[in-house]
Design a protein that fits this description.
The chain contains six helices and nine strands; from the N terminus they run H-E-H-E-H-E-E-H-E-E-E-H-E-E-H. The protein is α/β, with parallel strands linked by helices and 174 residues long. The relative contact order is 0.13.
Length: 174
């Protein structure tokens, strides 16, 4: 395998060819799905004979097309993957504990800073990155995951419920 830090499709193809072999069956993309690098990585993977492509789709279920520019970019990536004919799997994980409960995203329990989008009562899925890795590894061996969306979740809760539970257990007001 090789790491991608930009570069042209030609350089990706050279690196893919140099590192390809019988063990090179699945390519899991770690670049943002809205990045043009995904298409270069996809083309390099197809050219190198990779059997299955797993884009960095990890996140929430996509609503319909035309609802959000970010999601529309993800749909474009999916269109390219499906047009290429390569076997693929999309993993829908929900939110990651490591980013949701930090300064990066919604809730930072250390600082007491919270940001609730909407009314806070819509339930969402949460999972740890380590669990995502374990579930992905397991699902890739399941034939039902071929050319499919796979939903991976550990817990479902509304942000207001999480905040209330934290305040009750800790005695701290956010």
């Amino acid at each position: 395998p090789f790491s991608v830090r930009g570069g042209s499709q030609g350089s990706l193809l050279r690196r893919a060819a140099a590192s390809s072999g019988s063990a090179w069956r699945t390519r899991i993309s770690s670049v943002a799905p809205v990045s043009c690098s995904v298409n270069s990585l996809l083309k390099a993977s197809v050219a190198a004979g990779v059997k299955r492509f797993v884009p960095s789709e990890f996140g929430v279920k996509l609503p319909g097309r035309g609802t959000n520019i970010l999601f529309d970019l993800k749909y474009k990536v999916r269109d390219e993957i499906e047009k290429s004919g390569i076997e693929h799997t999309y993993f829908i994980t929900g939110f990651w504990y490591e980013t949701t409960f930090s300064d990066f995203f919604y809730l930072n329990f250390k600082s007491g800073k919270i940001s609730v989008i909407g009314d806070g009562y819509t339930k969402a899925s949460f999972i740890s990155l380590a669990d995502v890795g374990r579930f992905v590894a397991e699902a890739l061996n399941d034939p039902r995951s071929h050319n499919a969306e796979v939903y991976v979740e550990a817990e479902t809760a509304a942000l207001n419920d999480i905040i209330h539970e934290y305040e009750t257990v800790s005695g701290k007001k956010l």
